Amino acid sequence: MREISSWRTLLSAALFALLVSACGGGGGGSGGASTTANSSGSNSGPSGPTVTNTSPAPQVLAANAVRVTVDSGVSNVPNMPFVSITLCVPGTSECQTIDHVLVDTGSWGVRVFASQLPASMKLPQQKDAAGNLVAECMQFFDGYTWGSVRLADLQIAGEKAASLPIQVIDPGYAALPADCASLGASRNTPATLQANGILGIGVFKHDCGAACVQQALAGTYYGCQGVACASIPLAEEFQVANPVPYFATDNNGSILSLPTVSGGAASVSGQLVFGIGTQSNNALGSAQVIGVSPSNGTFTTVQNGTTYSHSIMDSGSTGLFFQTTAMTACPSPNSAYYCPASTQQLSALIQGVNGTTSAVNFTVGNAASIAQTYNGDAALPLLAGPAFVTSTIFDWGLPFFYGRNVYAAVEQQATPGGTGPYVAY
Predict the structure, then answer these.
(1) Distance CA 401, CA 360 (A)
(2) For this UniProt entry, which residues form the secretion signal (predicted)?
């Protein structure tokens, strides 16, 4: 039986959202989202087609698709979508399959724990152009992961990314730099990360992009000699990478498809489909294309008269996260979530940098009541809260994904909806 108090760690470990630090994510370019005002309830500003939470059409599990499960996972944390991935020593058949890897559309890059790999499995370490052994401190909203950057052949479904730079999380690797340790909570074990790894398949190719090429950023990439590690700039080709653009085919994006959930469910099963418009099972169809900033992957949400200019679409977040005075947070120590007196039927307007607008209806429940009514359930679509976001961020977490096909188009890759980056649904 899961008590509401056990949810204290839910957000602190599971809110794996788009990096909003100086590191950023994408390639070159700049731009910002529109900030046209609009309110919830009846929309008085620009209107767009209303999107409701209807179930996606069922799809046959094809070679470019892998099963996704929302279940009790590593630590009984709800709203975490998991897949299994296989990592191999490059060019060999020495492989290890790792289950309960978090599917995260709000970050980019593969991260696994050294403890999930056999001691005998020696993945070669990444070196930069100067011959430095590369390590990384990966920043999330409330903490970090630390470890070396290694090369591995990644296999998932029928897709393969050869010699992909990944982060192998290992708190015992070298000496943890002080500027990394200062970033918040350590997420260097499966128990604290609440997963055995992260499959970051958002809209960018590399996890830091041009920002790390131009200068050494504290708390990001390091060159290590023995136990001593110092911040270094790093060319994109050496950075931890989103595997999707490195597949031979189906490499322009992905679709996360999950069924509708009413109230709660013990577990649900869906699909992660690779490619957009490359196979019969990944057509864009009538999905609305929401352009995102090519520099940080954000768009705009307007809700109840408030403009959230740094909005993200993030399957790695366990709820919808935004700051509002219209609902009260749950009492401490569960203030990560809202506890409105009654279930709230809300609406918002999503605005892409491409000018597309889309009205979205969503529902927020009382997290304390949800925990009592659906204790033990892993899929909880009514969770929302203020945790770890600023006044400009609206984090459309996993509850948004239930009952939808949500697309993430990778930067610089051509798709039927135009060249990425964009999200669509």
Answers:
(1) 12
(2) 1-22
Domain parsing of the chain, residue ranges: 30-55+283-424, 65-246
Task: Report the C-alpha gap between 142 and 21 in whole angstroms.
Answer: 11
Structure tokens at 170: 């290992």
Which residue has tokens 């709230």?
A: 344
Amino acid symbol at 306: T
Strand-pairing partners, residue 418, are none
Class level of CATH domain 65-246 = mainly beta
Q: Are 152 and 112 in contact (CB under 8 A)?
A: no
The vertex-151 CA angle with 173 and 125, nearest 5°, equals 40
Q: What is the pTM of this model?
A: 0.88
* CB-based burial label for 59 (10 Å; 0-12, 13-18, 19+): middle
**pLDDT tens for each residue of 68-111:** 999 999 999 999 999 999 999 999 999 999 999 999 999 999 99
In the structure, what pLDDT confidence band is assigned to residue 48 with cuts at 50, 70 and 90?
very low
CA–CA gap between residue 139 and residue 241 (Å, rounded):
15
In the predicted model, what is the mean pLDDT of residues 7-11?
A: 35
